[in-house]
Amino acid sequence: MQEALVLPIPEDLGLVLDGCRRLLGPNLYGREPGAVGDCLVTGHDVAAVLALWSGHARRLLDHLGLPQAGLRLRPFDGGGSLYFPAPIDQLFTAAYVIETAWYLTAAGLLGLSSMTPETLATELTRISGMEQSSTLAELTAEASRRGIDRLLDDDALTLGHGAGSATWTTDALPEAPDWARLHDIPLALVTGTNGKTTTVRLIAAMGAAAGKVSGLSSTEFVKVGDEVLDRGDYSGPAGARLLLRDKRLEIGVLEVARGGILRRGLPVTRARAAVVTNVAADHLGQYGITTVPELAQVKLSVHRALAPGGQLILNADDPMVVEAAGSLDARPVWFSLSADSPLIRQSRADVRACGWLADGRLHLFDGIDDTALVAAEDVPLTLGGAARYNIENALAAALAARALGLPDAAIRKVLTSFRSDPTDNPGRANEFAVNGARVFVDFAHNPHSIAAITSALAALPAKRRFALITHAGDRSDEDIAALTRGLFALRPDIVVAAENPKYLRGRPPDEVPALIRRACRDCGLAEDRILPAASPADGARKIVARLEPGDLALLLVHDERAAIFDLLRAPTGAA
Questions:
Q1: Strand partners for 354
Q2: Which among 243, 573, 296, 272 is positioned nearest to 406, based on CA atoms?
Q3: Mind listing the pLDDT tens digit for each residue in 190-244?
Q4: What angle do CA 353, 314, 318 make, to 5 degrees?
Q5: Inter-axis angle of helices 117-131 and 91-110, to 10 degrees?
Q6: Which of 176, 440, 505, 509 is spaced 20 to 30 A from 317 at the CA atom?
């Protein structure tokens, strides 16, 4: 179906179709699958362009006999998106409708000749007939009636999750599956700007501590029990399918990234918990998401993937999350670093579940009982309570684990034993002892995450403070300067500005380190305290060579991680 219709879309910089996608599950716009397209408009009235686009789409849908209910326009700065829901066996057709409607819109505005709407409607009718699958539609509808989830891709359909799943190729779907053997498993989704991977790992570990075969998909890998199925960024639908089609799985946790939600929608429809850790500026300008409030709406769309009775678990201390939640019809389960948070007080008054920090302890409330679960200083991830962002992650994970039906004993066991090391939580504030100094390795790469780790480490005593920083070349000059300024919450005595040879991304060598050095000088650091390095590993070696007892170092690295870990594990800190 990928090349069923090829249209000569006009090439004009003022009218650009910036992508057209099938959404296979719940999404930014609603719970139903559908299709969406994004356009970029300059030199034309955006509202008028969107009105023409939607008008052509409605006429084509009417010709095809597809529902128009739910068609939505979403203007954004410099363009807009057109979405409508569609039957699960008409998603390619729906995407072609959006593309065809844009073709007619652009050709008309530019005064170009085009195929007639009647000819195009005939072609779309042909495609609709090719795509139609009554068996697929009936199977997914019956699964929904029975309270069973489904996962769909171009080649296969899965009903149920993990140990309760069955998968068929789309060209060999059964008329009558053995419904008695199909069921869902406890499933959690985790999204946010930062803290996703740590929270996912915590919840999965809690499932394992409860004696279940627990698994996760994340930006690092897909894992079931102790077996890594594959490594790579699996925070999208492909990771969910790889995980949830494994019949060993009894509890699943999915890291859900912004890109996957916007590109294909959410992969499931019946999760028991959905967590949003926080929302901050990152990856703006893609898929028509140009502002942080728009990004918050994308993140909070995870609530549409919840089963009836599922819990939406949100950060009450994040203003952007709180604002976005005000437009939802869901009643969130809130967590906060303060028992005096208005949302925590209201939740307790309404006898609704929530979690908070008070008197140095993590508390969970189930609507009846207040459980002082564990002292924050006894949670290794919190660095003795200094890493408050990991207190938030711990609260979110504990609430999600309860929503999955896991016992407090398993939750408590994981919180008091899970460590910031390359085994439990690789790349997240991993601590090493080197030459009597404390060295932390973190993959923080945006202002929010850098502020979180530097603020936490600034609270730790140190004789001298070292920092290694590097950036990818596709960041703007101002982004690189801002990220470097964020490093100075650590109050560094020496900064190593490292080249990142694999991530130049169009910039000449040394341009990014030069921007880092300039930002360090602007923050008041003397030139002789800013050291160059040819690579992240070279920078790590320069810091290790200078470390003395009582020092503290933060290495912000995105590449050469294995070499740096090996360096720091060496008995003397020397490679």
A1: 334, 365
A2: 272
A3: 999 989 999 999 999 999 999 999 999 998 899 999 999 999 999 999 999 999 9
A4: 130
A5: 170
A6: 440
